[in-house]
Design brief:
Layout (H helix, E strand, L loop, with lengths): L1 H12 L12 H30 L3 H28 L9 H16 L5 H31 L3 H35 L3
Length: about 190
Amino acid sequence: MAKSSAKQRKQTENTYSPGIASDDSMLKSFFEDELKDIYWAEKNIVKTLPKMQKAATSEELQQAFEEHMQQSQTHVERLEQVFEILGAKAQAKKCDAMAGIIEEGKGIIEETEKGTATRDVGLILAAQKVEHYEIATYGGLAQLAITLGLEDVADLLKQTLEEEKETDVKLTEIAEANVNYEAAEEEE
């Protein structure tokens, strides 16, 4: 029986409840810094998507980029709400990861032939890299918000997370429905 009590105490000691971090904790500071990072990313995605839309051949892909640009503008606004809830200024900090992914997308446009399905395949791949980075970031930030006891912030971040997942699925559907097959038939 003594072993069981010691084990239960150890489990209790390692159980934390949401909202345990103080306002000046390192975790809260890290959280806010990561919000600045994704804020920069979203603002730059809004600038980049029109270029991707213009470079796309498939009307369905062009429409998907248009829709995601509008959605990304909403994500920027939602992040501004998060900063407001936190009592912090909405401030962007360069996101090196997203800058690299965006640069890679520009390279795909430069290195593929205009008007080809192969370019569309590259654009979908580049866009999905963006989505996967955003999914990872919003998922982690939502969990941190819960840890920090910021349920309203977590709810906003989860809403964006779900939209990013939906966009990723839509891009896969576009690729699988026709673009990949059209590209497979293109000759050099």
